[in-house]
Protein backbone atom coordinates (compact mmCIF):
# COMPACT_ATOMS: atom_id res chain seq x y z
CA UNK A 1 0.00 0.00 0.00
CA UNK A 2 1.28 3.44 -1.02
CA UNK A 3 2.20 5.76 1.89
CA UNK A 4 0.79 9.27 2.15
CA UNK A 5 2.76 12.07 0.56
CA UNK A 6 3.97 15.08 2.65
CA UNK A 7 2.54 18.24 1.12
CA UNK A 8 5.48 20.31 2.45
CA UNK A 9 8.70 18.54 1.50
CA UNK A 10 7.49 15.72 -0.72
CA UNK A 11 8.65 12.89 1.55
CA UNK A 12 6.57 9.75 2.08
CA UNK A 13 5.09 9.42 5.53
CA UNK A 14 3.06 6.81 7.41
CA UNK A 15 -0.66 7.30 7.84
CA UNK A 16 -1.77 9.16 10.94
CA UNK A 17 1.54 10.86 11.72
CA UNK A 18 1.32 14.49 12.81
CA UNK A 19 4.85 15.46 11.87
CA UNK A 20 6.89 14.61 8.81
CA UNK A 21 10.12 12.88 9.91
CA UNK A 22 12.07 14.94 7.38
CA UNK A 23 10.71 18.51 7.55
CA UNK A 24 8.98 18.32 10.93
CA UNK A 25 5.73 19.91 9.72
CA UNK A 26 2.23 18.55 9.45
CA UNK A 27 2.24 16.51 6.21
CA UNK A 28 -1.41 17.35 5.47
CA UNK A 29 -1.07 21.16 5.66
CA UNK A 30 0.97 22.97 3.09
CA UNK A 31 3.46 25.40 4.63
CA UNK A 32 3.16 29.07 3.75
CA UNK A 33 5.63 30.04 1.13
CA UNK A 34 7.48 33.13 2.28
CA UNK A 35 8.16 35.41 -0.61
CA UNK A 36 11.51 36.98 -0.63
CA UNK A 37 11.20 40.62 0.07
CA UNK A 38 12.46 42.70 -2.73
CA UNK A 39 15.41 44.68 -1.67
CA UNK A 40 14.32 48.27 -1.42
CA UNK A 41 16.24 50.72 -3.49
CA UNK A 42 19.02 52.31 -1.55
CA UNK A 43 18.10 55.86 -0.58
CA UNK A 44 20.94 58.24 -1.49
CA UNK A 45 22.62 59.67 1.60
CA UNK A 46 19.83 58.20 3.79
CA UNK A 47 17.55 61.15 2.96
CA UNK A 48 13.92 61.22 4.11
CA UNK A 49 10.93 61.80 1.86
CA UNK A 50 8.28 64.12 3.25
CA UNK A 51 4.72 64.65 2.07
CA UNK A 52 3.66 68.16 1.21
CA UNK A 53 2.48 70.10 4.23
CA UNK A 54 2.45 73.83 4.88
CA UNK A 55 3.78 73.36 8.42
CA UNK A 56 7.09 72.10 7.02
CA UNK A 57 8.13 75.24 5.14
CA UNK A 58 6.05 77.81 7.01
CA UNK A 59 7.19 76.44 10.36
CA UNK A 60 10.81 76.75 9.23
CA UNK A 61 10.24 80.35 8.09
CA UNK A 62 8.61 81.28 11.40
CA UNK A 63 11.53 79.70 13.24
CA UNK A 64 14.00 81.74 11.17
CA UNK A 65 12.35 85.00 12.26
CA UNK A 66 12.25 83.72 15.85
CA UNK A 67 16.00 83.01 15.78
CA UNK A 68 16.71 86.54 14.62
CA UNK A 69 14.32 88.10 17.13
CA UNK A 70 15.82 86.15 20.04
CA UNK A 71 19.40 86.65 18.86
CA UNK A 72 19.65 90.25 17.59
CA UNK A 73 23.47 90.09 17.73
CA UNK A 74 23.34 88.05 14.50
CA UNK A 75 21.85 91.09 12.79
CA UNK A 76 25.07 93.00 13.41
CA UNK A 77 26.91 90.41 11.28
CA UNK A 78 24.47 91.01 8.44
CA UNK A 79 24.86 94.78 8.79
CA UNK A 80 28.63 94.42 8.68
CA UNK A 81 28.44 92.44 5.45
CA UNK A 82 26.14 94.98 3.78
CA UNK A 83 28.23 97.86 5.08
CA UNK A 84 31.19 96.36 3.21
CA UNK A 85 29.09 96.54 0.03
CA UNK A 86 28.44 100.27 0.31
CA UNK A 87 31.62 101.35 -1.56
CA UNK A 88 30.54 99.15 -4.47
CA UNK A 89 27.04 100.66 -4.41
CA UNK A 90 28.46 104.19 -4.37
CA UNK A 91 30.77 103.44 -7.30
CA UNK A 92 27.91 101.84 -9.23
CA UNK A 93 25.25 104.49 -8.81
CA UNK A 94 27.27 107.69 -8.76
CA UNK A 95 28.96 109.29 -11.76
CA UNK A 96 31.26 109.57 -13.55
CA UNK A 97 31.29 106.52 -15.84
CA UNK A 98 34.33 105.24 -17.68
CA UNK A 99 37.00 102.48 -17.80
CA UNK A 100 38.28 103.29 -14.29
CA UNK A 101 34.78 102.99 -12.85
CA UNK A 102 34.26 99.57 -14.48
CA UNK A 103 37.66 98.39 -13.25
CA UNK A 104 36.81 99.45 -9.70
CA UNK A 105 33.40 97.77 -9.94
CA UNK A 106 34.96 94.49 -11.06
CA UNK A 107 37.63 94.68 -8.36
CA UNK A 108 35.03 95.27 -5.64
CA UNK A 109 32.90 92.41 -6.99
CA UNK A 110 35.82 89.99 -6.65
CA UNK A 111 36.67 91.22 -3.14
CA UNK A 112 33.02 91.05 -2.03
CA UNK A 113 32.72 87.54 -3.44
CA UNK A 114 35.75 86.35 -1.47
CA UNK A 115 34.55 88.07 1.72
CA UNK A 116 30.99 86.88 1.19
CA UNK A 117 32.06 83.22 1.21
CA UNK A 118 33.55 83.73 4.68
CA UNK A 119 30.33 85.37 5.93
CA UNK A 120 28.19 82.55 4.52
CA UNK A 121 30.28 79.92 6.33
CA UNK A 122 30.08 81.82 9.60
CA UNK A 123 26.34 82.48 9.41
CA UNK A 124 25.52 78.88 8.44
CA UNK A 125 27.65 77.68 11.34
CA UNK A 126 25.71 79.90 13.76
CA UNK A 127 22.39 78.80 12.24
CA UNK A 128 23.38 75.16 12.78
CA UNK A 129 24.10 75.84 16.45
CA UNK A 130 20.78 77.67 16.88
CA UNK A 131 18.94 74.67 15.44
CA UNK A 132 20.62 72.39 17.97
CA UNK A 133 19.95 74.93 20.74
CA UNK A 134 23.64 75.52 21.39
CA UNK A 135 25.26 78.76 22.43
CA UNK A 136 27.25 80.82 19.99
CA UNK A 137 29.47 83.88 20.03
CA UNK A 138 31.21 86.11 17.52
CA UNK A 139 34.14 83.69 17.76
CA UNK A 140 31.76 80.98 16.50
CA UNK A 141 31.18 83.09 13.40
CA UNK A 142 34.92 83.53 12.85
CA UNK A 143 35.74 79.86 13.49
CA UNK A 144 32.97 78.53 11.23
CA UNK A 145 33.84 81.00 8.49
CA UNK A 146 37.47 79.93 8.59
CA UNK A 147 36.78 76.19 8.91
CA UNK A 148 34.41 76.06 5.93
CA UNK A 149 36.06 78.70 3.77
CA UNK A 150 37.97 76.62 1.22
CA UNK A 151 35.18 74.15 0.51
CA UNK A 152 32.56 76.91 0.34
CA UNK A 153 34.80 78.91 -1.99
CA UNK A 154 35.14 75.95 -4.34
CA UNK A 155 31.40 75.28 -4.04
CA UNK A 156 30.56 78.92 -4.80
CA UNK A 157 32.78 78.90 -7.88
CA UNK A 158 31.17 75.65 -9.04
CA UNK A 159 27.72 77.17 -8.47
CA UNK A 160 28.72 80.21 -10.56
CA UNK A 161 29.86 77.89 -13.36
CA UNK A 162 26.56 75.97 -13.21
CA UNK A 163 24.67 79.27 -13.29
CA UNK A 164 26.74 80.55 -16.24
CA UNK A 165 26.15 77.35 -18.21
CA UNK A 166 22.45 77.59 -17.36
CA UNK A 167 22.28 81.17 -18.65
CA UNK A 168 23.92 80.12 -21.94
CA UNK A 169 21.40 77.28 -22.30
CA UNK A 170 18.56 79.67 -21.51
CA UNK A 171 19.69 82.07 -24.22
CA UNK A 172 19.85 79.21 -26.71
CA UNK A 173 16.34 78.07 -25.71
CA UNK A 174 14.94 81.59 -26.09
CA UNK A 175 16.64 82.07 -29.48
CA UNK A 176 15.41 78.70 -30.75
CA UNK A 177 11.83 79.43 -29.67
CA UNK A 178 12.03 82.95 -31.15
CA UNK A 179 13.11 81.50 -34.49
CA UNK A 180 10.22 79.03 -34.23
CA UNK A 181 7.86 81.96 -33.52
CA UNK A 182 7.28 80.78 -29.96
CA UNK A 183 8.97 83.47 -27.83
CA UNK A 184 6.56 83.06 -24.89
CA UNK A 185 7.23 79.32 -24.76
CA UNK A 186 10.96 80.04 -24.72
CA UNK A 187 10.64 82.50 -21.85
CA UNK A 188 8.46 80.10 -19.82
CA UNK A 189 10.84 77.18 -20.41
CA UNK A 190 13.76 79.37 -19.40
CA UNK A 191 12.07 80.44 -16.17
CA UNK A 192 11.20 76.85 -15.27
CA UNK A 193 14.75 75.74 -16.06
CA UNK A 194 16.46 78.40 -13.93
CA UNK A 195 14.05 77.80 -11.02
CA UNK A 196 14.79 74.07 -11.09
CA UNK A 197 18.54 74.69 -11.17
CA UNK A 198 18.34 77.00 -8.15
CA UNK A 199 16.00 74.65 -6.28
CA UNK A 200 18.09 71.53 -6.75
CA UNK A 201 21.32 73.15 -5.58
CA UNK A 202 19.90 75.56 -2.99
CA UNK A 203 21.11 73.46 -0.05
CA UNK A 204 24.70 72.67 -0.98
CA UNK A 205 25.99 75.31 1.47
CA UNK A 206 24.26 74.05 4.61
CA UNK A 207 24.98 70.43 3.59
CA UNK A 208 28.65 71.29 3.24
CA UNK A 209 28.70 72.99 6.66
CA UNK A 210 26.32 70.79 8.67
CA UNK A 211 27.07 67.38 7.13
CA UNK A 212 30.74 68.16 6.43
CA UNK A 213 30.69 66.51 3.02
CA UNK A 214 32.96 67.20 0.09
CA UNK A 215 31.93 69.85 -2.43
CA UNK A 216 30.74 67.35 -5.05
CA UNK A 217 28.84 65.26 -2.48
CA UNK A 218 27.21 68.43 -1.13
CA UNK A 219 25.85 69.26 -4.60
CA UNK A 220 24.73 65.66 -5.13
CA UNK A 221 22.99 65.50 -1.77
CA UNK A 222 21.28 68.84 -2.39
CA UNK A 223 19.98 67.50 -5.71
CA UNK A 224 18.63 64.27 -4.19
CA UNK A 225 17.16 66.13 -1.20
CA UNK A 226 15.26 68.51 -3.49
CA UNK A 227 14.13 65.72 -5.80
CA UNK A 228 12.85 63.51 -2.98
CA UNK A 229 11.04 66.40 -1.27
CA UNK A 230 10.12 68.34 -4.39
CA UNK A 231 6.74 69.76 -3.34
CA UNK A 232 8.02 71.10 -0.03
CA UNK A 233 11.27 72.39 -1.57
CA UNK A 234 9.30 74.18 -4.29
CA UNK A 235 7.11 75.80 -1.62
CA UNK A 236 10.29 76.73 0.30
CA UNK A 237 11.82 78.32 -2.80
CA UNK A 238 8.72 80.39 -3.63
CA UNK A 239 8.27 81.44 0.00
CA UNK A 240 11.92 82.50 0.32
CA UNK A 241 11.65 84.54 -2.90
CA UNK A 242 8.40 86.26 -1.85
CA UNK A 243 9.70 87.07 1.65
CA UNK A 244 12.87 88.59 0.15
CA UNK A 245 10.78 90.79 -2.15
CA UNK A 246 8.50 91.88 0.69
CA UNK A 247 11.43 92.81 2.94
CA UNK A 248 13.01 94.89 0.17
CA UNK A 249 9.70 96.45 -0.90
CA UNK A 250 10.49 99.94 0.49
CA UNK A 251 13.66 100.10 -1.63
CA UNK A 252 11.79 98.84 -4.70
CA UNK A 253 9.06 101.42 -4.04
CA UNK A 254 11.57 104.31 -4.10
CA UNK A 255 12.82 103.31 -7.55
CA UNK A 256 9.31 102.65 -8.86
CA UNK A 257 8.06 106.05 -7.72
CA UNK A 258 10.94 107.80 -9.41
CA UNK A 259 10.70 105.76 -12.62
CA UNK A 260 6.95 106.35 -12.87
CA UNK A 261 7.59 110.07 -12.60
CA UNK A 262 9.98 109.80 -15.56
CA UNK A 263 8.02 107.35 -17.71
CA UNK A 264 8.43 109.63 -20.70
CA UNK A 265 12.21 109.03 -20.62
CA UNK A 266 12.11 105.25 -20.53
CA UNK A 267 11.87 104.92 -24.30
CA UNK A 268 15.11 106.77 -24.91
CA UNK A 269 17.17 106.10 -21.79
CA UNK A 270 18.39 103.06 -19.93
CA UNK A 271 17.41 102.17 -16.38
CA UNK A 272 20.96 103.08 -15.36
CA UNK A 273 20.50 106.55 -16.88
CA UNK A 274 17.26 106.99 -14.95
CA UNK A 275 19.04 106.03 -11.74
CA UNK A 276 21.60 108.74 -12.42
CA UNK A 277 18.81 111.32 -12.69
CA UNK A 278 17.47 110.49 -9.22
CA UNK A 279 17.95 113.27 -6.66
CA UNK A 280 20.70 112.74 -4.12
CA UNK A 281 18.22 112.34 -1.25
CA UNK A 282 16.44 109.53 -3.12
CA UNK A 283 19.67 107.65 -3.64
CA UNK A 284 20.86 108.16 -0.07
CA UNK A 285 17.52 106.95 1.30
CA UNK A 286 17.64 103.88 -0.95
CA UNK A 287 21.20 103.10 0.25
CA UNK A 288 20.25 103.40 3.92
CA UNK A 289 17.20 101.18 3.47
CA UNK A 290 19.23 98.73 1.39
CA UNK A 291 21.76 98.47 4.22
CA UNK A 292 19.26 97.65 6.98
CA UNK A 293 16.67 95.73 4.95
CA UNK A 294 19.28 93.93 2.85
CA UNK A 295 20.96 92.64 6.01
CA UNK A 296 17.59 91.41 7.27
CA UNK A 297 16.73 89.66 4.00
CA UNK A 298 20.22 88.13 3.79
CA UNK A 299 20.05 86.63 7.30
CA UNK A 300 16.47 85.40 7.09
CA UNK A 301 17.27 83.61 3.85
CA UNK A 302 20.19 81.67 5.38
CA UNK A 303 18.38 80.95 8.66
CA UNK A 304 15.33 79.73 6.73
CA UNK A 305 17.49 77.57 4.46
CA UNK A 306 19.25 75.98 7.44
CA UNK A 307 16.10 75.40 9.50
CA UNK A 308 14.22 73.90 6.55
CA UNK A 309 16.97 71.44 5.63
CA UNK A 310 17.89 70.37 9.16
CA UNK A 311 14.26 70.03 10.30
CA UNK A 312 13.71 67.45 7.55
CA UNK A 313 16.98 65.57 7.95
CA UNK A 314 17.57 65.66 11.69
CA UNK A 315 15.71 64.18 14.61
CA UNK A 316 16.02 66.33 17.68
Would you kindly provide a written description of the structure presented here, covering whatever features stand out?
The protein is an all-alpha fold. It folds into 2 domains: 1-32, no CATH class; 55-63 and 93-313, no CATH class. Helix content is 71%, strand content 0%. It has helices spanning 54-70, 73-93, 99-131, 138-147, 149-179, 183-200, 204-211, 215-228, 230-247, 249-261, 271-276, 280-313. The model is unreliable at 31-40 and 266-270 (pLDDT under 50).
List keywords for this structure.
316 residues
- Name the structural class: mainly alpha
Sheet with most strands: none
Helix content: over 70%
Poorly predicted regions are 31-40, 266-270
How many structural domains does the protein architecture include? 2
Shape: elongated
Rounded Rg: 30 Å
Mean pLDDT: 81
Separation, N- and C-terminal Cα atoms: 70 Å
Order of helical and strand elements: HHHHHHHHHHHH
DSSP helical segment count: 12
The count of DSSP E runs of length 2 or more, i.e. the number of strands, is 0
Beta-strand share of residues:
under 5%
**Oligomer class:** single chain
Amino acid sequence: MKMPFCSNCGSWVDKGVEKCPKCGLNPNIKAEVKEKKKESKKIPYDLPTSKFHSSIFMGSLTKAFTYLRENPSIYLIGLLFYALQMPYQIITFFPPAGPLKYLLQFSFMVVLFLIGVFFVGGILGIAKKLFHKKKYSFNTFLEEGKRNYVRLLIGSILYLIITAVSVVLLILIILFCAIASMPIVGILCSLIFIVLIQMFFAFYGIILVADELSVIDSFKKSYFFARMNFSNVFAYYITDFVVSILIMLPVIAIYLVWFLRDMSKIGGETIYSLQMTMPLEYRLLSFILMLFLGALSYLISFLYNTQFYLSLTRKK
